[in-house]
Amino acid sequence: MPHRTPLYDLHLAAGARMTPFAGWDMPLHYGSQLEEHHAVRRDAGVFDVSHMSCVDVSGPNATAMLRAALANDVARLSEPGTALYTCMLNEAGGIVDDLIVTRTGDEAYRVVCNAGCAAKDLAWIEAAAARAGSPAPRVTARRDVCLLAVQGPRAADRLVRAAGDAASPIVALAPFRAARAGRWLATRTGYTGEDGFEIALPVEEAAPLWRALLSAGVRPAGLGARDTLRLEAGLPLYGQDMDETVTPVECGLDWTVDRRVERNFVGRRALDARVPRFRRVGLVALDPGIMRAHLVVETARGPGETTSGGFSPTLQKSIGFGRVPVRVAVGDVVHVLVRDRRLTTTVTAARFVRHGKSLLQENAAP
Amino acid sequence: MNIPSELKYTDTHEWTRTEPDGSLTVGITDHAQELLGDLVFIELPKIGATFAAGQECAVVESVKAASDVYAPVAGTVAAVNEAVASKPEIVNTAPYDQWLFRIAPAQGAEASRLVDAAAYRALVEAES
Q1: Secondary structure (3-state) at B54
Q2: Dihedral-angle region of residue A122 (phi above 0 means left; psi in -120 to 50 means alpha; beta otherwise)
Q3: CA B63 to CA A32: how far, in whole Å?
Q4: Rounded to an integer, what distance in angstroms lies between the CA atom of residue A289 and that of residue A317?
Q5: Is the pTM of this model over 0.90?
């Protein structure tokens, strides 16, 4: 029996088609994935992402523990109310999961994990806590919170309309900043390439906020739109674009690995020693046809693979991420094998749309 | 579930209509378009191409997935509906008006893959 989020009945009431995802029964769409996609690009949408798991880490050694466990450096979080994106690596430099970490106090952090990695991540974080100095930081999986992502250029306006004064500290946030509002913990983050907020709140407050958002004109959006939005925005998906065999360098996440200071985080030695053979690029189809994940990419430098692919509703053509030999360059023409056809594609930077605007022109510039 | 009684169906969710000249007009059912979601690309067969019954001969792709369309009978493609190739979404809005192709059955071809509306409805209900 798959898990259901506390908003399950509200999804059905909103006309959701449900789909199994990482052990959960989640909304795929509420009638039209395309309309949900466009709503987030042009106005505002809300995603129930309560399947993602929140883990709180606190105690005197919490900072030291996370600095050793994570590839990005939580020492960058200079004060409570700041957040960063990071990978958690294994000793070989492969990605255990990608996470958002928010500093919630002097020695207190919230870690948001992918649903499919929840059990593994919790065990991993508990092991890191056990290795940390005494006293070991407290690690608490927060099964008592829901997570709603309100995304889109009008997310702030509509959140104010839905939540009134409770929204004031939230809509005043700068990107990657966090604030408490009553019992809510909100960050100005997202997975769509648009402005927006991710709000963790008690289960009993989630349904009222969901209803208020819909009444304020926010469109419910499912996993389908979430996937096309993140693909356009150039954001990788765990389990598809990366996994425990892939290093951050090979999937376009080198920028999240903080090597500025001598810091012996898990996976560092392997990362420093490993010479990457592949890198991540964007692919834009020049022919009609749609590339999907895990297709062969033929390049002049040897074969590669699409790790994600699909139809871009904003650009009205197929786009994807390619894991290709490192010498493949932006501007190269490569071919993706789609069934019995060779789809001609051009290599670009791996981000296609940001804040509602195509980046294709910008990407093509030298 | 919209399943017009005058059409015949396959268990792979194509509908067919027999034309006065004996050819079969083929499209995908309302159930099929709903399962796929918003269609964004359709690859039609070439006119004159021949297929065995049950052989894949076209592809419909939604934002979500690609799905093959199978020949309901053995035969030769006599016509294709270019309108759906340029605007795939019209299949979502009118699946029984927007046909994909017409196939002229080969001599002696059997329509054993085809069932009537009641049988197709039973099949869809058993699936869901």
Answers
A1: coil
A2: alpha
A3: 10
A4: 8
A5: yes
Three-state DSSP class for B101?
Answer: strand
Q: How many CA atoms lie within 13 A of B120 on its CB side?
A: 26
Tell me the shortest Cα–Cα distance from A227 to chain B, in angstroms.
Answer: 9
Residue A88 CB neighbour total at 10 angstroms: 26
Cα–Cα distance, A248 to A88 (Å, whole number): 10
Q: Does B47 touch chain A (CB under 8 A)?
A: no
The closest of B81, B77, B23, B85 to B60, measured between CA atoms, is B85
Q: What is the pLDDT along chain A (366 residues), one digit of tens a residue?
A: 899 999 999 999 999 999 999 999 999 999 999 999 999 999 999 999 999 999 999 999 999 999 999 999 999 999 999 999 999 999 999 999 999 999 999 999 999 999 999 999 999 999 999 999 889 999 999 999 999 999 999 999 999 999 999 999 999 999 999 999 999 999 999 999 999 999 999 999 999 999 999 999 999 999 999 999 999 999 999 999 999 999 999 999 999 999 999 999 999 999 999 899 999 999 999 999 999 999 999 999 999 999 999 999 999 999 999 999 999 999 999 999 998 899 999 999 999 999 999 999 887 655
Tokens found for residue B120 = 């197709």
Residues A363, A345, B62: CA angle, nearest 5 degrees? 105
Helix axes A223-233, A33-42, angle to 10 degrees: 50
Question: Under an 8 A CB cutoff, do B37 and A288 touch?
Answer: no
Q: Residue A222: how many CB atoms within 10 A of its CB? A: 27
CA contacts within 13 A on the Cβ side of A103: 21
Q: Of the candidates A32, A318, A339, which has its C-beta nearest B38's C-beta?
A: A32
Indicate if the alpha-carbon torsion angle A190, A193, A216, A20 is positive or negative.
negative
Cβ contact A34–B66 (<8 Å): no
Contacts of residue A208, defined as CB under 8 A and 6 or more positions apart, other chains included, come to: none
Q: Residue holding tokens 């906020």?
A: A209
Subunit contact B41:A310, Cβ cutoff 8 A: no
In chain A, which residue ranges form alpha helices assigned H by DSSP?
8-13, 33-42, 62-69, 118-131, 155-163, 168-171, 203-215, 223-233, 268-273, 360-364
A292 contacts B64? CB cut-off 8 A? no
ipTM of predicted complex: 0.84
Instruction: For residue B63, give the nearest of A228, A288, A289 by CB distance.
Output: A228
- Specify the length of chain A in residues: 366
